[in-house]
Structures are given as C-alpha cells and as structure tokens.
Specification:
The complex is a heterodimer of chains A (111) and B (116).
Chain A: E1 9-13, E2 18-23, E3 32-38, E4 45-50, E5 53-56, E6 61-64, E7 70-75, E8 84-91, E9 105-110
Parallel strand pairs in A: 1-9
Antiparallel strand pairs in A: 2-7, 3-4, 3-8, 5-6, 6-7, 8-9
Chain B: E1 5-7, E2 10-13, E3 19-24, E4 31-37, E5 44-50, E6 53-56, E7 65-68, E8 75-79, E9 88-95, E10 106-107, E11 111-115
Parallel strand pairs in B: 2-11
Antiparallel strand pairs in B: 1-3, 3-8, 4-5, 4-9, 5-6, 7-8, 9-10, 9-11
Classes of the chains: A mainly beta (111), B mainly beta (116).
C-alpha cells in the first residue's frame, strides 16, 4: 500500500481557496487517490476520489499530475465550517487492503 | 437513508474490565470495518468484514480484541481485558462495492472509550 505524506497543518482565511498536497511516490498502477474529511467528534466523510488528471464535484477538486506521485485537493472559497482534518489515502480497493489513514492535514479557517 | 449506527457513544471503564461496542451498518452494505482512532492520530483499521467473513484482521490485537458479524449485518467489537492504551474512539464504517477504486466508506459517530 502506497505511503502518503501531507502537511500536518494549514491555516487559511474565509473566502480563500485552499490547496492541500499529498505525496505518494510509490503509487501503484491500479491505485486510486481518495480524500476524506473529519470534523471533531465525527467519523471521516468521503470527499472525492480520482485516478488521473482532474476530478471535480460539488465540494472540491482533485488535481493529479501525469506521474501520479502527488495529488492536490482544492477547496474553493473556504468557510469556517471547512475547519477539519483532511486525509489522503491511496489504494486499489482490493479486499484485504489495509486502509491507512495517516495523521492527515489539520486545516484551520480563520475569520 | 439511515447512516451507520453505533452504541454506546461513550464508555468509561477501569483497566482489566471488559467492554463491547455495537455497530449497525447501512442497509445492504456488505463490507464493515472497525477502526481505532487515538487522539491526534488518523483512524487505524482493526478488522474488515465482507458479509460475515473476515477479510483483514492483521492489526487486531487478538489476545484482547475480538469481533464478530453474525448474519452479515450487525457487528460487535469486544475488548477483554482493557488496558490504559485502549483509550480511543472506536469507529465503525460500512461500504458497498463500487465499480472501481476504493469503495466509499460511510462512518458512524464512533464510541469514545476511556480506560482508567
């Protein structure tokens, strides 16, 4: 399972765009990249998943370069309610895969 | 649709006591996961079930932890005897097989365990 590296913490202000980068140098051919969001006292919540190039949904965008050794989660115009921990996971979803949530990135959105 | 249900939400026990957590996954979800999340860390997978069979329990401390998923629906996770280092939030999640990539996991609110 590919190991991921993310910044431990980030600060932003309301209304700004936030980009969180995840490094996964040993990503395998069949691996996908998935991001989860976790608020205090709640379980993680799926945000977005992608394999290559760009994926966009109503919440975020995920940018994946051609070599796929990193990915960037982009949150447009963040609000205070986006303050949370964001986790990057890499894997192919096969059964028996050990889902590894690293320490994540703690995003603090300031007024 | 109803989400993943867990109970109790909070539990305080003394070390060497036993404790059990219950999880009811989203209806129709064949895969169920138990995670342990220690304060300040990401969730750590303890065990993964596919229906009522174990797919992965490589990180489950089997000398004290046990889990079962009878009839492929509800699941219980037990700790006996508990140690101080078991203090954590225990999260249950479920998923339904998707077309590709990692299945989206739906998490419950968790059970916060404090071992004194």
């Amino acid at each position: 399972l590919a190991k991921t590296t993310q910044p431990i913490s980030m600060d932003s202000y309301e209304g700004q765009e936030v980009n969180i980068t995840c490094s996964h140098n040993n990503i395998a051919t069949n691996d996908y990249i998935t991001w989860y969001q976790q608020f205090p006292s709640q379980g993680p919540r799926f945000i977005i998943q992608g394999y290559k190039t760009k994926v966009t949904n109503e919440v975020a965008s995920l940018f994946i370069p051609a070599d796929r050794k990193s990915s960037t989660l982009s949150l447009p115009r963040v609000s205070l309610s986006d303050t949370a921990v964001y986790y990057c996971l890499v894997g192919d979803g096969s059964y028996g895969q050990n889902f590894v949530f690293g320490p994540g990135t703690r995003l603090s959105v300031l007024p | 649709e109803a989400g993943v249900a867990q109970s109790p939400r909070y539990k305080i026990i003394e070390k060497r006591q036993s404790v059990a957590f219950w999880c009811n996954p989203i209806s129709g979800h064949a895969t169920l996961y138990w995670y342990q999340q220690i304060l300040g860390q990401g969730p750590k997978l303890l065990i993964q079930f596919q229906n009522n069979g174990v797919v992965d329990d490589s990180q489950l401390p089997k000398d004290r932890f046990s889990a079962e998923r009878l009839k492929g629906v509800d699941s219980t996770l037990k700790i006996q005897p508990a140690k101080l280092e078991d203090s954590a939030v225990y999260l249950c999640a479920s998923s339904h097989p998707g077309d590709k990539g990692m299945d989206e996991q739906f998490f419950g609110p968790g059970t916060r365990l404090t071992v004194l």
